[in-house]
Amino acid sequence: MASSRRDRQNPRFDQAAEQGNERSGPHLKLGTGRAIAHHGEILQGVFENEDGHLLRGLITLPLAAQQSTATYWPNGPGRIRTRPPGRGKAAKAAALTLKHLGFANIGGDLTIESDIPIGHGYGSSTADVVAAIRAVAAGAGVNLRCSTLSKLAVQAEGASDAIAYGEQMVLFAHRQGDIIEHLGGDYPPLQVVGFRSGGARPIDTLNLPRARYDQQQIAQFKALRGLAFRAVKQQDPRLIGYVATASARIGQHHLAKPDLETILNLAKAFDACGVQVSHSGTLMGVIFDPTEPGVVQRSRLLRDQLERSGYEGVITFFVNVDGVFRQ
Amino acid sequence: MTGKGDVPRSFEAPRIVRLERNLYAACFSLMKLLPARYILDRAQAAGRLLPGGSVVETTSGTFGLALAMTTAVRGFELTLVTANSLIDPPLRRRLEQLGASLHVVEDASGSGAQAERLMLLKKVLERRPETYWPQQYDNPDNRWAYGSFAESVCREIGRVDCLVGCVGSGGSLCGTGGLLREMFAELVILAVDTQNSVLFGHPPGPRLLRGLGNSVLPSNLQHELIDDVHWVGVLPAFAAARQLYRQHAVFMGPTSGAAALVAAWYARRQPDATTLVILPDEGHRYQHTLYNDDWLVGIKGWPVDVPREPVTLSRIEAAGEGDWTRLAWARRALATVTAGSCRS
Predict the structure, then answer these.
(1) pLDDT tens digits along A54-109
(2) What angle is formed at CA B154 by the lines to CA B149 and CA B160, rounded to 5 degrees?
(3) What angle do CA A314, A315, A316 make, to 5 degrees?
(4) Which residue from A107, B215, B234, B243 has the highest number of Cβ atoms inside 10 Å of its Cβ?
């Protein structure tokens, strides 16, 4: 069942891989790809797929203000060299993409330029990987579906997030690279005051123990999934706030943010929609409705207060809003 | 566990209808299908219930019917323990046609004979220890079964400000209410009980409104979630069910009438709040009673007008079958409230 659905989602995925060496060097040109960061999650938990199996999944909060840009120069048969050196996952992603597109054993140079901080939960590694895949695809002159891109990203680094989907809000199985549910469209407009909480030490996200959820939490995730769907349908930032806050509270049982209660009280005092966290990092964000009157003033006051309290990495960013990415 | 050969699952989800601008009703064909399926799923997943295994439960009605439907399609053997005061011949025939074995306890007092039913159930378990007992009253899975319902509510309505529902086991109201309040902290939860039910402190006695209230206290009822309790007698419940049918063409059972009565009252008083009421079963089982005027004239006190509002009490007080009473419960424990009330 599962594999037949995957084939349907990605009709070219297996087919192209089977073509093996049929294509060769001349088609490859220089290619550039970009990928955005994220600011943790709106929701993370376990969710039933169509067959009733529970999968770990998440809804990413995109952070378009920070990006990774990858440039791929084809260089005939050989391996992929990265600049800066040691970007092994991005190199692996580039190689997998070449193979997937029928350019097996072709190497090249991959340059990664990124302003995404490493290790706090901004998804720097996934952004490099996705940018590298896009760079190779651009070099080959082909378009890749988001689902194909996500599959390749998971193959390259073991887990991924949904940034390949941009402003489409999806419930994403990050260990499989599969969509659990297309939530129906764009993220609602969001304004987020983000920051790093607690000890700002970098975290190796792949080595965190996996969260175990009880029946109550699994039932809660069903309700939260339903509310996320409604939030997209109504383009309602308030509902996103409820989802994110409840998910952050459940996350306290796994990787606790010591100051969550403080931030929740602040969010309430500034009439925000809610609080989101990176479930495997240190990021937290207070979510506002950018269409509400007075939101500019309220979010600025909150930002001042966070900065005075010594939080690092304080930024204001926007999702699906006319105008700037970031203030 | 899902998919092939699981027809009852398709009947689990309610139709969510809009009765008024700010009032939604979740109309279940047979709400108990949800906990019955979920509890059996969990027992099967845990290896507690093996293929061809047996199930026993004490039940007065709809949970038994839901179990009978689910066990029939899954090939389990079902034994139901009930009382002669609780089961009517048509229901009995339906259960037996689904393959369930019935043990019917004598109940001369009409209070439900819970103690006798439990004793008989224990005997069945002693005789066949591998038999699975779902324990709808105390099994927390009865509450978490309502995750999929809470999901439907969120998908179709979004934020809810007030949830109204009947209490028997406490599973639907406390399961759904607990999940919704985790997202909507200010959610108001109104519990609907009936006269002579011990759930919110009445002394036990004969309950004419079946399927609502209880003569024992289930642990799935979490009193600390409840803002207000309403005791609705059988007469206003019947009248409200008939009105629901006449006004909205929503054909539901008598307990749904009681819940709809309370919900409509709250929605009128709180025009800016979104109220959702859970209506647990359809009217077909009650065509020869509630929907039969010839039968109704034999009910003492009938006909009654649908009351506009409840009598607000300041402490727990028993009342009659024509009454609708209300107490501000304020999310307190049962012992806290009963300590402050002297029973009449």
Answers:
(1) 999 999 999 999 999 999 999 889 999 999 998 999 999 999 999 999 998 899 99
(2) 105
(3) 140
(4) B234
Helix (H, G, I), strand (E, B) or coil at A248: helix
Task: Considering only the beta carbons, identify the residue of A222, A236, A238 that sits closest to B151.
Answer: A222
Q: Which among B147, B154, B159 has the least Cβ separation from residue A219?
A: B147
Euclidean distance between CA atoms A228 and A240, whole angstroms:
6
Comparing CA positions, the residue from B341, A238, A316 lying closest to residue A325 is A316
The DSSP element (H or E) to which B94 belongs, if any, is helix B89-97
CATH number where B117 lies: 3.40.50.1100
Instruction: With respect to residue B134, please indicate whether it lies within any of the assigned structural domains.
Output: no
Up-side HSE of residue B151: CA atoms within 13 Å toward CB?
18
Residue with tokens 């964000």: A285
Q: Tell me the DSSP string of A116-138.
A: PPSSSSS-HHHHHHHHHHHHHHH
B227-252: burial string, b at 16+ Cβ within 10 Å, e else: bbbbbbbbbbbbbbbbbbbeebebbb
A48, A56, B69 from B41: Cα distances, Å: 14, 20, 14
B141 CB neighbours in chain A (<8 A) are 215
- According to DSSP, residue A242 is labeled H
* Half-sphere CA count of A151, side-chain side, radius 13 A: 19
pLDDT digits (tens, 9 = 90+) for A22-49: 444 458 999 999 999 999 999 999 999 9
**DSSP states of B4-32:** TT-GGGGG-SPEEEEEETTEEEEE-SBTT
Residue B344 domain flag:
no
> A223 and B147: CB-CB below 8 Å?
yes
DSSP A146-160: HHHHHHHHHHHHS--
Chain A partners of B143 at a C-beta cutoff of 8 Å? Answer: 216, 219
B158 to chain A, any CB pair closer than 8 A? The answer is yes
* The token pair that represents A8 in the structure block: 């349907």
Query: How many CB atoms neighbour CB B101 within 10 A?
Result: 14
Cite the DSSP H helix spans in chain A. 2-9, 13-18, 88-100, 124-140, 146-157, 215-234, 237-251, 260-269, 295-308
B119 with B185, same domain? no
The ipTM estimated for the assembled molecules is: 0.94
Q: Nearest 5°: phi and psi at B73? A: -75, -20
Compute the average pLDDT of residues B60-84: 93
What pLDDT, in 10s, does the model give residues A152-203? 999 999 888 899 999 899 999 999 999 999 999 999 999 999 999 865 455 5
Domain that holds residue B74: 50-127
B161 in contact with A at a CB cutoff of 8 Å?
A: no
Which token pair is B328? Answer: 């501000």
CA dihedral B265, B268, B270, B271 (to 10 degrees): 150
Give the Cα-Cα-Cα angle B234, B194, B227 (nearest 5 degrees). Answer: 135
Tell whether B42 is covered by a domain: no
Q: Which of A117, A111, A138, A121 has the alpha carbon at shortest distance from A67?
A: A117
Cβ B327 vs Cβ B315: under 8 Å: yes
